[in-house]
Design brief:
The complex is a heterodimer of chains A (about 300) and B (about 450). Chain A is α/β, with parallel strands linked by helices. Chain A is about 40% helix and about 20% strand. Chain A has 13 helices and eleven strands. In chain A, strand 10 and strand 11 form a beta hairpin. The longest helix of chain A is centred in the middle third of the chain and has 14 residues. By secondary structure, chain B is mainly α. Chain B has two domains: about 160 residues, no CATH class; about 250 residues, MetI-like fold, CATH 1.10.3720.10. Chain B is about 75% helix and about 0% strand. Chain B has a two-stranded antiparallel sheet. In chain B, helix 10 packs across helix 11. The chains are: A alpha/beta (about 300), B mainly alpha (about 450). At the A-B interface, helix 5, strand 7, helix 6 and helix 9 of A face helix 12 and helix 13 of B. The complex binds adenosine-5'-triphosphate (ATP) and magnesium ion. The site of adenosine-5'-triphosphate has 13 residues of chain A, from strand 3 and helix 4.
């Protein structure tokens, strides 16, 4: 944990004067030595490495996706800096952090949605079951079928409820006939907890549902293509508490079959649904650990400030 | 006093009124520190006083412009010698004209020269004195109005609401100009058309199959009673519009899809202005492009294939008209495609759809109502287009569905009916108004439907 401790100091340089005595004293002189004000040229490289190290264990037991040294640039803006993180099978990892810290940017790397942004440039190594998703051989279409995404604002297509769910399976040829398609649609809606509410109005437009129903429809749409990983970017931010509770239950359930990464601004939500939590700050991944640990005994001053509500 | 001088004086007075009003409002509030006790900002009190200074005068001026001349002329006519005054109305108006021309120094009527010269002098002197009186009145009204408003300034006066009320009134008046003009055009066309239908039964016009609008020049002329069956014109119009839409819709839509979904910003920066230039080409230029380039080209091509293509054909006119409409279709479609939220596209990409699948299954269906609306607007443009068809489609009112033959359209016939010296009460010229009415109604309906469709579509994403 030596390097991690060092990182603790490094990322706190700006606040160095206000850092309280830590329970576990680190190499105090190092702080002074590496302070940017001093900035000896020959130490730059080493310093940079150290600065991006993350507290906690970035690996997962049964990793589905592994991200190593991921950087994202929007033009000249280095929006995501040297991030390492795994997403494991049957687990929910929550991504938290103040607005603009790069959570969405990170999650969009995982299914290459950043490709749709012209100015975005992604470097680093992101693997899905060992295959580099940014390599030439990877077909982004198949990748997105394996790594599904649910967006912040419910965005059903202007089609019927049925067609919304059937859209993905049709694209990927998952059903060979109408009966199979019907089955997929029903199963997905059932798992999304929406079937009872919409089974009599499958032909109504999806845009006519309530916000919470629309979001569950979007989740149903995502699980209809049977992905291995589900990415959720603040899926509940547009919903009321009841709809949120339904979706949280749904996430719990989905976690038994899928690997899930969820961005959220609600600490309670992160605490309720996730097993691991990652804290981002200004484009850096500051700390990753079990959700319990992050919320009760954070290893980094910034994390502590954020989860205790002192800023963010 | 000259009109321009008067306006200048009024402007200066209004500016002075504005400044005085503003100053006064600060005064009644009790100095700069107490401006917050005023209901409105000081400048609104200024505008309030300025409006009271200028508007009554302008209204009076407007009244004078509409009725002043008639008033003066009434006085002049009353002073005419008896034998002139008692002439029948039609001749009296000739005399009045003579007087006006004489007063302007243009014309000398040898017959009643003396009387008219006297009347013209009177007319001129009356006009000059009326001008002076008017100017005096306007200035006085301005002074009185602003003085009254000035003394009425109180902190509680809702000056902003008043001023905004006047501004709103001005806006309403401005917008009614266009509406009233449209109504006026419609009415004039309608009345002329009714006169036409008194001569030719409406059923003959709407359902007749032959169009040859010759009427006898002399009553004893034979064999040219004229025939006003408009069906060949309607079919010709439809044929050409259909060809134009067949060209414009696919090309315009594909251009829009390319521009909004595939083109890099660099390409878009070049292609969009280029298209707008295409939209800015005068239709006359398209016309001779159709007549001189496309027509002969189609003829040669037809000869090569063993087809008989008329030198003026529906095909040529339709093709060029289609090209003319492309920018119209593409920019409207571009707008609606861009209005489809990015979130919708992201949703589709997130499920592993390719770009073309996303466009086909999500973007286009979402944009469809808007595209249809745009297409309807384009149709109404095609139907109303005149220049290209005049030059390239011919004048022969053939009842045919063969695009290789010459046809003629409603607009072309309106032009030919009205070109040249015409009596304005023969069936031939009146037919133009009947055709115009039909055109007006059809395009109006198309526009109403199109605008409703477009509006409905807009609401979907708001
Ligand atoms: N499309 C884009 N183009 C340019 N810069 C972008 C774009 N999207 C995000 N950024 C920048 O990248 C940084 C990270 O943004 P990101 O959206 O990932 O933040 P976030 O953590 O998701 O914030 P929030 O909680 O507000 O959603 C920000 O500084 C933002 O300005
Ligand atoms: Mg975000």
């Amino acid at each position: 944990m030596d390097t991690a401790e060092q990182a603790y100091d490094m990322t706190n340089i700006e606040k160095a004067e206000t850092v309280p005595p830590r329970p576990d004293p680190g190499p105090e002189p190092a702080v002074v030595q590496f302070a940017p004000e001093a900035e000896p040229a020959e130490q730059e490289v080493a310093e940079e490495r150290a600065e991006y190290d993350t507290i906690g264990d970035v690996t997962a037991k049964d990793a589905v996706m592994t991200v190593r040294d991921c950087n994202v640039f929007y033009g000249d803006n280095h929006a995501l800096q040297h991030v390492n993180l795994d997403v494991g099978r049957n687990e929910v990892v929550a991504l938290i952090g103040p607005s603009g810290c790069g959570k969405s940017t990170f999650i969009r790397c995982l299914n290459r949605m950043n490709d749709t942004i012209e100015t975005a440039r992604v470097t680093g190594e992101i693997r899905l079951h060992g295959d580099d998703i940014n390599s030439r051989e990877t077909d982004v279409v198949l990748l997105r079928a394996r790594v599904g995404m649910v967006f912040q604002k419910p965005n059903p297509f202007p089609k019927s409820v049925y067609d919304n769910v059937a859209y993905g399976p049709k694209l990927h040829g998952l059903a060979s006939n109408r009966t199979e398609l019907d089955e997929i649609v029903e199963r997905s809606l059932l798992r999304a907890g929406l079937w009872d509410e919409v089974k009599d109005r499958l032909d109504d437009p999806g845009t006519g549902l309530s916000g919470g129903q629309q979001q569950r429809l979007c989740i149903a749409r995502t699980i209809a293509v049977d992905p291995e990983v589900i990415l959720m970017d603040e899926p509940c931010s547009a919903l009321d508490p009841i709809a949120t509770a339904k979706i949280e239950d749904l996430i719990d359930e989905l976690a038994q079959n899928y690997a899930i990464a969820i961005v959220t601004h609600s600490m309670q939500q992160a605490a309720r649904v996730s097993q691991r939590t990652a804290y981002f700050h200004l484009g850096k991944l500051i700390e990753v650990d079990s959700t319990d640990k992050v919320f009760t005994n954070p290893g980094h001053r910034l994390t502590e400030d954020y989860v205790t509500g002192r800023f963010g | 006093m000259r009109l321009s001088t008067l306006l200048l004086i009024l402007t200066v007075m209004a500016i002075a009124a504005f400044m005085l009003g503003r100053r006064r409002s600060i005064q009644v509030a009790g100095g700069y520190g107490a401006i917050r006790t005023l209901h409105s900002l000081p400048k609104y009190y200024g505008y309030y006083v300025a409006i009271w200074c200028g508007v009554p005068g302008l209204l009076l001026f407007g009244l004078w412009l509409s009725f002043g001349d008639a008033l003066i002329m009434g006085r002049v006519v009353a002073s005419l010698p008896e034998q002139l005054r008692d002439l029948p109305d039609a001749q009296l108006s000739l005399v009045v004209n003579d007087i006006k021309n004489m007063a302007a120094g243009q014309f000398m009527n040898p017959q009643r020269g003396a009387e008219i010269a006297v009347a013209a002098d009177l007319y001129n002197s009356l006009r000059v004195s009326a001008r002076w009186i008017l100017s005096g009145l306007i200035v006085a009204l301005g002074l009185a109005g602003s003085g009254l408003a000035w003394t009425r300034l109180r902190p509680e006066l809702r000056a902003r609401n008043r001023v905004e009320g006047i501004v709103k009134l001005g806006l309403i008046l401005a917008s009614t100009v266009a509406i009233l003009t449209t109504i006026g055009i419609l009415l004039s066309v309608l009345f002329e058309a009714i006169r036409f239908f008194q001569k030719i039964p409406m059923t003959d016009f709407l359902f007749g199959l032959t169009w040859s609008p010759q009427t006898a020049l002399r009553a004893d002329q034979v064999g040219s009673s004229g025939s006003f069956g408009a069906i060949p014109l309607f079919t010709g119009t439809l044929l050409i519009s259909a060809i134009a839409m067949l060209v414009a819709m696919p090309l315009g839509l594909m251009t829009a899809i390319f521009l909004s979904e595939y083109a890099t910003p660099r390409v878009r920066a070049w292609v969009k202005p280029a298209l707008e230039i295409l939209a800015g080409v005068p239709t006359v230029v398209y016309g001779y492009f159709a007549a001189l380039t496309v027509g002969p080209l189609l003829g040669d091509l037809g000869a090569l294939l063993g087809l008989d293509v008329a030198s003026e054909s529906a095909l040529g006119a339709g093709l060029v008209m289609g090209i003319m409409i492309i920018p119209f279709v593409s920019s409207l479609s571009d707008d609606v495609i861009n209005a489809v939220p990015q979130a919708m596209r992201d949703g589709s990409y997130g499920l592993g759809a390719t770009q073309s699948e996303t466009i086909k299954h999500v973007v286009l269906p979402a944009a469809l109502p808007g595209i249809v609306g745009g297409a309807l607007l384009a149709v109404s443009r095609a139907i109303g287009e005149t220049m290209i068809v005049v030059m390239a489609a011919g004048l022969a009112a053939n009842l045919t569905a063969n695009p290789l033959e010459a046809v003629t359209t409603v607009t072309v016939q309106i032009v030919t009916l009205l070109v040249g010296d015409q009596e304005f009460d023969s069936a031939k010229t009146l037919a133009a108004f009947a055709l115009g009415l039909v055109l007006f109604i059809v395009t109006l309906l198309l526009n109403v439907v199109a605008l409703r469709v477009v509006r409905k579509y807009r609401e979907q994403y708001e």
